[in-house]
Amino acid sequence: MNILLINHYAGSNIHGMEYRPYHLAKEWVSLGHNVTIIAASHSHIRTKQPEVMDKWTEEFLDGIKYIWIKTPEYEGNGIKRILNMLSFIKELSFNIKHIVDQIEPSIVIASSTYPLDIYPASRIAKKANAQFIFEVHDLWPLSPMLLGNMSRFHPFIMTMQKAENDAYRKAHKVVSLLPKADQHMIEHGMASHKFTYLPNGIAVDQWLEANENIPPGHQTIIDELKLEGKFLIGYAGTHGIANALEYLFDACEALKDDPVAFVLVGKGPDREKLIETAKQKKLNNIYFLPVINKKAIPDFLSKMDCLYIGWRKSPLYQFGVSPNKLLDYMMSGKPIIHGIEAGNDLVAEAQCGISIPPEDPEQIAFAVRKMMNTPEQTRKAMGSSGKNFVMSKHDYKVLAKDFLKIMK
């Protein structure tokens, strides 16, 4: 098959996030299919932007043909990001015949976070007589409405809402990373038979081959904490509002007489504020370490006794969550403390830790003490259960084959 995947933010092993299009495409290529990814030249989530010479730049990576469409640079969520989106959609719309003639797709997948790309994607599919699949990562415009407090009557939101509704009507099939998103989608015009849940994934082989050590400074702090007999709870990921890390402070206060230390690595918009708050509270059992390379994440996680991830309370999560970070945690073979109230709970499903209500410092402290008092063999069994769960259900080798079944 000739598969065309349109994802504004698509990345690669070289460019960084977003990884899902790259890993799925790499597996499809290995199975004998031709895959083209069309993406924008600038994305706020990539660590490295592609080098583009003109409006359209082609690049081959691991057998995948990338077409980078030159778009304006931007930061944050202001007007420049909207101009970046519109530039990408415009170029797609003006080059539909060229895309069809060049790629001759039998499958067209629209997979950007926002739904506007469904208009050129559906036209490409129609002209090529191809199957059109709409892949939903986050529910837009519901996400910016609930997380960004945007009015449903904002022109941007109203435009996105029309696009979402049209997407469910135009698509032959709808794939979602959120297991219970069909409830929302049916309310917005999707026929129920179109829906398939295909969760987030992880490249197991790549994860197992990641053997970079954490920086010496990180190792020194961890060694000192272990010499003091501390039970280490690790966190690796973004320090932002969605991660609800401020609830760790009261938990640290409650655990001040326990041999416990929280060790956080990463970056994000709230990191400096969190560090300052910890200083003001004079907490000596929480440590903020600088971000580390992705290939050093397995080494960091392996040095922890258990891992923590928490969510905010939000009606958005009733449709489920699908975080990359949690899959890394489970692959590490460590038990997990999971603060969640959502439509799904991978930790509970895999029986690989303790699930607690979100935004609750007392419950965090309770879970930490419970984990500390759990026999080491039981904690290892929890960790093994999580790792086996991920390898059997979330490896991209598995997900790519499952996606092909949807296409057929």
Automatic annotation (TrEMBL):
Location of the Glycosyl transferase family domain: 225-388
Residue ranges of domain Glycosyltransferase subfamily 4-like N-terminal in the record: 16-205
InterPro entries: Glyco_trans_1 (IPR001296), Glyco_trans_4-like_N (IPR028098)
GO terms classed as biological process: lipopolysaccharide biosynthetic process
SUPFAM superfamilies per UniProt: UDP-Glycosyltransferase/glycogen phosphorylase (SSF53756)
Keywords, ordered alphabetically: Transferase
Gene Ontology MF terms in the entry: glycosyltransferase activity
Pfam families: Glyco_transf_4 (PF13439), Glycos_transf_1 (PF00534)
Family listed: Belongs to the glycosyltransferase group 1 family. Glycosyltransferase 4 subfamily.
Protein name: Glycosyltransferase family 4 protein
Organism lineage string: Bacteria, Bacillati, Bacillota, Bacilli, Bacillales
